[in-house]
Amino acid sequence: MRPAIAVRAAGLGRRYGRSWALRDCTFDLPEGKVAALVGANGAGKSTLLRLLAGVLTPSEGSAEVFGAEPWLRGLSGVGFVAQEKPLYRGFTVAETLRMGRAMNPGWDQAYAAALVDRAGLGMRTRVGALSGGMRASLALAVALARRPRLLLLDEPLAEMDPIARQDAMRTLMVEVAETGLGVLMSTHVLADVDGVCDYLLLLDRGRVLLAGETDDILAEHRIVVASHRAERTDFGPHRVVRTQVSERQVTALVRRDGELVGDGWVVSEPTLDEVVVGHLLASAQSDSGGSAESGSEAAAQSGSGAAA
Ligand SMILES: Nc1ncnc2c1ncn2[C@@H]1O[C@H](COP(=O)(O)OP(=O)(O)OP(=O)(O)O)[C@@H](O)[C@H]1O
């Protein structure tokens, strides 16, 4: 049976004035996944999350969250924690939870209290007196206590110290395992979610470079090192994302098309970080030198490669 889809985006785009922040964004995110939304500053991550949360409307294309357009259905079943945490600085932690309870029919007060306790937040502390990381923990607790099916998080870990990050990730993972919660979270630091995320969405200057299950993405990519004495170094028919040529060898990140063997080649599995960095560098390179979005792939397919 095919998994249910939590988010479906098709040709989704948004511009501010004449500048496109997100363009032609197409992907399906199955339910219950922990998805990392990765990309450099200004890649369009917040714009995508805000579109999916229904606080922005698209300029083109469509998006559905649990089968409905988010800007029409509101946030039912979906929790959203924006980058600028939506909390009242004059409220205490207890008042913040009380307001959450009053505003959300499905609110789980015991769970909210347990989460703020675990994060070491005193109930009587004013939000304005909390550090950025503590505020992020509180915002996460408020979002989780609504018991959403999908949580959209915009850089939730950015201001947390390493222990708070680990705690927050652990809390999320328990929730995912126990309730089937899905999470789509933006981050600059892939290391924070590597080994935890099972879906990757990589944006680059408003475009989707990669979207899919991390296992599938890792399975289709390989790093190939070929000495110049190797039988061949064009790697066809595999699609080369990026190559680096040194005096002694050619190193390539390739998307394989079937078995990947060559005389004098050393083939290994890349890490997710290597895949992401390879695609980002290839995209930057094709923009400065080539034309197409996957210019380095096209160049390499024709056998020329794209030397770094
Ligand atoms: N309200 C706005 N008005 C005008 N331009 C905007 C607005 N919000 C975002 N942009 C522009 O849209 C592009 C994408 O921004 P967005 O905030 O979605 O990126 P991001 O990947 O979340 O960046 P960051 O990692 O820095 O948070 C950027 O060029 C940004 O300057």
Automatic annotation (TrEMBL):
Keywords (A to Z) from UniProt = ATP-binding, Nucleotide-binding, Transport
Q: Which residues form the ABC transporter domain?
A: 7-230
Instruction: Work out whether the entry's keyword set contains ATP-binding.
Output: yes
A GO term, aspect molecular function: ATP binding
Q: Note whether ATP-binding occurs among the keywords.
A: yes
SUPFAM superfamilies, sorted: P-loop containing nucleoside triphosphate hydrolases
In terms of superkingdom, the source organism counts as Bacteria
Transmembrane region positions?
Answer: none
Instruction: Map out region (Disordered) in residue numbers.
Output: 285-308
Fetch the PANTHER family from UniProt.
ABC TRANSPORTER ATP-BINDING PROTEIN ALBC-RELATED (PTHR42939:SF1)
Name of the protein this chain belongs to: ABC transporter ATP-binding protein
The species is Solihabitans fulvus
